[in-house]
Design brief:
This protein is an alpha+beta fold. The protein is built from 27 helices and 18 strands.
Amino acid sequence: MSISSEIKERIDIVELVSAYVSLQKAGRNFKALCPFHNEKHPSFFVFPEQQTWHCFGACGTGGDVFSFIMKKEGIDFGQALRLLAQRAGVTLSSVGPSSSVEDKKRERLFQINEAATEYFHHLLLSTKAGEVARNYLDKRKIAPETIRGFRLGFSSSSWDALKKFLANKGYATQELIEAGLIIEKDEGNSYDRFRNRLIFPICDLQGRVMGFGARALGESLPKYINSPQTAIFDKSSCLYGVGRAVDNIRRRNLVIIVEGYMDVLTAHQHGWQNVVASMGTSLTEKQPRILKRLTKNIILALDADLAGQEAAFRGVEVLTHSLDKKITSTLSWSKELASSVDKGMAPSPSLAGLVKHQSILDAEIKIMLLPPGKDPDEVIGEDSALWQSLVEQALPVLDFALETVISKVDINKAKDKSLAVQKLLPLIYEIKDLVQQGHYVRKLADTLKIRESDITAALRKSQIAQRKPQLTATTKQPRLSYPLVSNPIEEYCLALLLQCPRLRQTARGLEVALFESTENREIFAKWQCSQDISEFREKLDASLLENLDYLMSKPILDKDGMEEYALSDCILRLQENLSKRLEAGRELMLNLTREKEGVSAELAKLDEQGIRYSEQLKEVFIKRERPGRKESR
């Protein structure tokens, strides 16, 4: 039995969820207002027999004890594993012989950074040498409480002051090198990395210091430097200020991403504690992963110049690839469905084959363009009302893209019209909601004064091109002989992907939401963002390596070019299973609503979920409640 399975056996999901939300008995199950979004009627259900949970409302997601604690606490799988293992009294020594050594090493680095943070902070607040940094912060109107809250610091111009301080604390030179605080010279000597600089501690979601950013206070170049990559710090996966912004991001259900340290300090100081910074670099694919468990609403605050516009497009592309997708289900009208409606019957889970599944970005991204020549800290400091207005007027991505692209072309020239369509078509293609997609097709056609049918035809060609598979080389791995994962279809699907890398393009329709098991979700998510098996193993939590080895060893029954068809079949079956779970869950939820509050409340629940059944189907629900009529099951 795997560690995660043992933990799930020991922890009752009802008891776990009850610690966060007030559950009400609903037959054999429990219901509550969803803890992850605002709602008037309960759409969040816990199923004790399956030890699972699901939100049938706006979230449209579910899982087990792991996925619940990950989503609720905003932590990754490894952190959830350790938290739940402690709760269940399960030892993690079996995760791997090297893991405890690595954990101790990481903890030691966090301790070193904490000691360095206290040292830098003391130099800033209490020393004569720190006056130059205090004057700079005063000039930038950073208040004392902000300085203390973010634990800003100062590094002196000495070449070894920090090294000596930490050595007196018992830390070895090699440890300080590994922490990135001192630099080793060729002849074996070493010196402090940060000298005569304003120090910005960079923290994780739990508030632990991972590394440092530093601004020169003299004429030194470069103006900004950071800690190098270490076992606990990777600049491309960090967002400055996120540790202090977590609660406010959740409360406002919105995060605003800026570029610089000072932007974050000023924003938080003026009440905008949901602001974080990419630290002067273009947004990376790793950074959004920190945010996706906190909110699905993101605003990019960027300069209005050309560079800012290009950064916006790059940021949107990164967010689109990095954030979660959700599966939406729409009923495809057919003679069978029409017949069931005519007979007064609601569509049942048995009609799952009629359900069309689509993956859409499970987030809303907007762009805020700043006044020319102004940084966020200047806008907020000079006119907080203007900042509020800019936040409220932030444009959805497609509107921003359309305005930006159209402003650069001459719509009276056929070549420019074609260029505009080519640039905007990939973004319109990503819109899976047909109503929204049609809106932007019409808007683009009207703006360019061309026929909608021309854009639709180009869009259709894009869809065909997206479906063409590309082949890559295959890989063989050692084999194990015992099962560790739970769902046979999920298991075979993952085995195909892991053992046949050429199937990556075929898997474009496969989404994390289709996997019921958190372990399988985690394996698939890490596979999605890995280029090869070695990189994949490095990214995967150590507790899941045993699962991975089993999947790599699982016999593939479909050979001689049939793997692609087998994977396609697995995806369809996973989609069908998801459809059945959703339909059965919605039926349960609606039955409970109808029994307690009547048909009107049931229809209101449908509207709240965003389920757009036809008026005919609504009439079916009403017919079921008419006196003398038996319900069709």
